[in-house]
Amino acid sequence: MEIDGIISAIVIGVVIGVLGRLVVPGRQRIGILWTILVGIVAALIGTAIAGAFDVADTDGPDWIEWLIQIGLAAVGVVALDRAKSRR
């Protein structure tokens, strides 16, 4: 992976993390840095899942890949929020 790929993964991860957080109802007790990290991880895993199902590269926007990434980010935000609330 080249530097521009890493930078784009970070930017996409930020967007995916924020969208994942917006999908989750209620207040989350995690900070923005955790949201960004969850988004980056969700973007990378979502891209791998979309590639495995052969929906990563389409002629237009990759809506299915984005939905997978946002769904994973929402799950990650909920999991991290619940883990932090148990402390």
UniProtKB/TrEMBL annotation:
Stretches that traverse the bilayer: 6-24, 31-51, 63-80
Location within or outside the cell: Cell membrane
GO cellular component: plasma membrane
Primary location group: membrane
UniProt membrane topology term: Multi-pass membrane protein
The keyword Transmembrane helix belongs to this UniProt entry's keyword annotation: yes
Family statement: Belongs to the UPF0410 family.
UniProt name for this protein: Membrane protein
Source species of the chain: Streptomyces fumanus
